[in-house]
Design brief:
By secondary structure, the chain is mainly α. The protein has seven helices and three strands; from the N terminus they run αααααββααβ. This is DUF721 domain-containing protein.
Length: 173
């Protein structure tokens, strides 16, 4: 039984006087040569796709960043170029408040805002507000270790608010 894929044993190649049958590799070479010739007529190179115009320079381009960078390094560079370093660091303090002041103090206090070197911290009771006021100089040092020298100059502590007072005379309940 003959294999229909076998070029050497095909019935057409057995005719005397015909040229010898070509092997598979020869047929592939001829097909490739024909494809290259067709592509040359069209003005393109096989496997490269169509080029619509001249391409720009291949090296690093100004403003494009050049070589790939690690994500963390790229973010730090972006923050430095935009002047966001201090804001991001302060945001880190707000996010890591328990890690900075400890879990017990963090349970009763929370940072509210940071403005012009002053961190405002709210306490849930007057007792914890007093405790935080006593620790404020230590807290300023600790925050400056985290954020950089002289970022926080003062900690303002606010206690719980009982709401706005009604105008007028004092009232006894």
């Amino acid at each position: 039984m003959t294999d229909p894929q076998d070029v050497h044993n095909s019935p057409d190649s057995q005719n005397p006087g015909d040229t010898p049958a070509k092997s598979g590799i020869e047929l592939a070479r001829e097909a490739l040569a024909q494809a290259r010739a067709d592509a040359a007529k069209r003005g393109s190179v096989p496997g490269q796709g169509k080029r619509k115009g001249p391409r720009g320079p291949r090296g690093p381009q100004p403003g494009r960043g050049g070589d790939p960078k690690l994500f963390g390094a790229a973010i730090r560079e972006l923050m430095a170029s935009r002047g966001w370093e201090q804001r991001a660091a302060v945001g880190g303090v707000f996010g890591n408040w328990p890690g900075i002041v400890g879990p017990e103090l963090a349970e009763h206090t929370r940072p509210e805002k940071f403005e012009d070197g002053e961190l405002t911290v709210a306490a849930d009771s007057t007792t914890w507000a007093t405790q935080l006021r006593l620790l404020s100089s230590t807290l300023v040092k600790r925050l400056n270790e985290e954020l950089g020298h002289n970022t926080v100059r003062r900690v303002k502590v606010v206690g719980p608010s009982s709401g706005p007072r009604r105008p007028g005379a004092w009232r006894v309940r």
